Each structure stands twice: as C-alpha cells, then as structure tokens.
Amino acid sequence: MSDSIQVLTDGQGQPIADASLLIVDDDTPFRNRLSRAMEARGFAVRSAESVEAGMAALREGPPAFAVVDLRLADGSGLDLVAQIHELRPDARVVMLTGYGNIATAVAAVKKGAIDYLAKPADADDVFAALMADPSAKPPPPENPMSADRVRWEHIQRVYELCNHNVSETARRLNMHRRTLQRILAKRSPH
Questions:
Q1: Is the entire prediction scored with pTM above 0.90?
Q2: CA quadruple 34, 40, 41, 45: dihedral sign
Q3: Nearest by Cα to 64 from 130, 133, 137, 116
Q4: Does the pLDDT of residue 166 top 50, yes or no?
Q5: Dist. CA 77–CA 100, nearest whole Å
Q6: Which residue has the higher pLDDT, 136 or 80?
Q7: Spatial separation of the C-alpha atoms in residues 61 and 57, rounded to whole Å
Q8: Contact present, 144 and 134 (Cβ < 8 Å)
Q9: Closest by alpha carbon to 121, among 102, 97, 137?
Q10: Can you say whether the dihedral through the CA atoms of 54, 128, 105, 189 is positive or negative?
Q11: 7: confidence class by pLDDT, cuts 50, 70, 90
C-alpha cells in the first residue's frame, strides 16, 4: 500500500468496511480528478459518464457511497439516486450540479441524496459531504441568499411544479410570459 493512500474511517476512527464509491459525471476531466482524489482518501472508486453506464455499474453492485451529477448527457442523475437508494438504502449519495436551485435540491433529497453541492465542488467539499454525521446540523451559510436569488428560486420552484410549462408558470406568478422567459433564460443571481 502506498503512503499516499489512506484507510477510510468513520467519525469515531473505526475503519469503514465498505468504502465503495461510484462517481457519475459526464465531465471527464472533473470525474478523473475526483476519482483520483477519492482513491487517495481510501475509497474504492468506480466511475461512469452517463445514466446508462451508471445503471450498469449499479447492476455490478450498489456502492456504499456515490457522487452523481444532476444533468447527464442521456438523462437525469435523479434517476440514478433513486435506483441507488432502492438497491442500497444505507448508501450515502451526494448530488452535484452546475444548475442548482432549491427545487432540484429538494428532489435529490427526496430521492435519497444526503447532500447537494453546487459545481465547482472540490474533493474536500465532496469528501466532507460524504463523511458528514447524518445527525449533525449544517452550519448556517456564510453568505445568505440575496433577494434576487430568493425571487429566482421561487420562480424556479413554480416552474418545476408546472412541469416546465411557461404559460402556466406565468399565469400562477401573475407575470407576463415574455418576462418569465427572459428570467428563465438567465443563470441564477448570486
């Protein structure tokens, strides 16, 4: 065993019996960097670049840990989260996304994810999320959401509830459809 490879331990310093980790992300350089970083921290890593490849990896054996991107070229990472949780209810799954909003974070948690991180997340953030004590409360955010971000999140939630129907969303928000389309076309404010 190399000196740079650690034995993965839980919060009490006990070795973790199953350190299997599945990383599913279609960003190849990111997936490869994260895989190497997690192997160095003691995980037994398998990786996949799509929902289909992720499902194939699950058929080989559901992992104890997983890191799944929300948007993959061939579908939603939420489908993988649900399948992992169904096959292995004790799996600790972290969802990653570059398109974060509260509605998708809630959906990820409902499907079985333990945390939801916005990209770019580094290996330390991912590791901390995977190993966090499930009973511990997260610290309050250092930078709370701006009023513009809160408004954007609300619009995104209503849009999700309306099954991405712009006209229905605009009606429910009492907003002009073209104004809503402009808002939806922009990235989230910080």
A1: no
A2: positive
A3: 130
A4: yes
A5: 13
A6: 80
A7: 7
A8: no
A9: 97
A10: negative
A11: low
Q: Retrieve residue 89's tokens.
A: 């209810």
Distance from C-alpha of 81 to C-alpha of 110, rounded to nearest angstrom: 10
Beta bridge pairs of residue 22: 46, 66
| pLDDT score of 190 | 61
Q: Which contiguous run of DSSP H or E holds residue 118? A: strand 113-118
Contact (Cβ atoms closer than 8 angstroms) between residue 53 and residue 72 = no
Cβ–Cβ contacts within 10 Å for residue 54, how many?
Answer: 29
CA–CA separation, 179 vs 98, rounded Å? 24
Q: How many helices (H) and strands (E) does the chain have?
A: 8, 7
For the chain, domains (ranges, CATH) are 20-131 (3.40.50.2300), 147-185 (1.10.10.60)
State the virtual CA torsion across 183, 187, 188, 190 in degrees, nearest 10: -130
- 3 pLDDT tier (thresholds 50, 70, 90): very low
